[in-house]
Design a protein that fits this description.
Length: 110
């Protein structure tokens, strides 16, 4: 199962951490894994391309691990708003996947 942990400071989403494997199909044919990977990598790439924010990114390992964190001090509030909107869009997409395939994906917000 893929576990997603979302952390917020007041209304701002500042960290998303994912780990695990969906195991919803054979290796190379796991549609839940492909969807989660596509949504998350697409959102991270959008933040990097459309803002001047240097995201803190940790990834790799056998456990399908990805952690994305906004840096603690951002001077450009426009970039912060853009990044937050893009990451919130990612979360909406992940929640849509969870609604349909909840046995393979769990999201926890704190």
């Amino acid at each position: 199962m893929i576990q997603v942990t979302v952390k917020r400071k007041s209304e701002w989403l500042y960290s998303i951490e994912m780990s695990g494997h969906a195991d919803s199909g054979p290796y190379g044919f796991d549609l839940v894994c492909a969807a989660v990977s596509g949504v998350s990598i697409g959102a991270v790439n959008a933040v990097l391309e459309l803002t001047e924010i240097d995201l803190q990114i940790e990834q790799g390992g056998e456990g399908g691990y990805l952690k994305v964190t906004l840096p603690p001090l951002l001077s450009n509030s426009d970039d912060l708003e853009k990044a937050n909107l893009l990451l919130e869009g990612m979360l909406v997409s992940l929640k849509s996947i969870e609604m349909e395939y909840g046995e393979f994906l769990k999201i926890k917000e704190s």
